[in-house]
Specification:
Receptor-associated Protein
């Protein structure tokens, strides 16, 4: 009996129970808050959709959606500090543009993104505290501070990385897409009809998604020039801005769109080759640093080491 009591009140057992209860509470919390995917799919098939549930496709946003969605009303409550509310109001237009550039316009809005930042600020130190406790260590005050700061700025870094990757994906497929547009236009199709056919036949990518959004704006009554300007403002990519400007000028002057598209595709392909050559030149220069620091000392030791040892053994030095 005494052995059982000692086991129940031992540090290892108490710590294990704390971790188990923490895991169980988080599991139950997530199970209660997260929506039932099968129920949502059934409601969509019946044509009855829940407006409070967004079709989040990004895993990170999908995991934390119930938490940061529930925290959005706090941004407009009296408990939220005035200086924080002013910061949110100042950053809201920029985050709106960044979310559009990252293709998250249908998944999260600026207010929810600010709430997501608050959730990550609270989640990061708790997660690190759990990890440090699991390995039998403790967090220092500086670690607490850095975890809070890192959690607050992590969504910004994550959003910028998504924008960078999407920009890179658009630039990669742009020359090939312009070649297909050129062939379609020269075959007799209208520019809008060519984009529509490409959107139906080509595999989905970042550029095709933006072209589909362009088609939606045109169908809603926006002129082609205004839709192209909106495309350039939405993506903020130099190649897309140049492409849109040339098409707008060709439309205003009555020039052949096929020739403009072909010239633009050749220019983009040449620029991509030049960027690849410059990246190769930079790589050959950057490789000198690890070569001098890591490889050359090892070569000198292997080549000159035995000779120096012989000199030392003979008393020359």
């Amino acid at each position: 009996m005494n052995q059982i009591i000692n086991i129940l009140f031992s540090d290892a057992f108490v710590r294990g129970m704390i971790y188990f209860l923490a895991f169980a509470s988080v599991f139950v919390f997530v199970l209660v808050l997260f929506p039932d995917e099968q129920q949502i799919a059934a409601r969509k098939r019946l044509g009855v959709e829940d407006e409070t549930v967004k079709p989040n496709k990004t895993p990170l946003l999908k995991w934390f959606y119930p938490i940061y969605y529930a925290c959005v009303p706090l941004l407009y409550s009296s408990l939220f500090p005035q200086w924080a509310a002013a910061y949110v109001e100042k950053k809201r237009p920029q985050y709106q543009k960044d979310l559009i550039r990252a293709n998250l316009r249908n998944e999260i809005n600026p207010d929810e993104f600010f709430s997501f930042k608050v959730v990550m600020t609270l989640f990061s130190p708790v997660f690190l505290f759990y990890i440090f406790g699991a390995i039998g260590s403790s967090m220092s005050p500086s670690t607490w501070i850095f975890s809070i700061i890192g959690g607050f700025f992590f969504p910004d870094l994550w959003l910028k990385e998504r924008i960078r990757l999407r920009r890179k994906a658009i630039i990669r497929v742009l020359p090939f897409t312009l070649d297909l547009l050129t062939l379609s236009v020269e075959a007799g199709l209208d520019f809008v009809a060519s984009i529509q056919r490409m959107a139906q036949r080509m595999e989905q990518n970042a550029l095709i998604e933006e072209f589909q959004h362009l088609l939606k704006e045109i169908r809603l009554g926006t002129s082609r020039s205004d839709a192209l300007r909106s495309l350039a403002d939405r993506l903020q990519i130099e190649e897309i801005s140049s492409f849109s400007s040339l098409l707008i000028q060709a439309d205003q002057l009555g020039a052949s769109i096929g020739d403009v598209l072909r010239a633009q595709a050749d220019q983009l392909r040449t620029r991509r080759f030049q960027n690849a050559e410059s990246a190769g030149a930079r790589a050959s220069q950057l490789v000198l640093v690890p070569m001098v620091v890591c490889i050359f000392p090892a070569i000198f030791i292997v080549v000159l080491g035995p000779t120096l040892l012989n000199f030392l053994a003979q008393g020359i030095f």
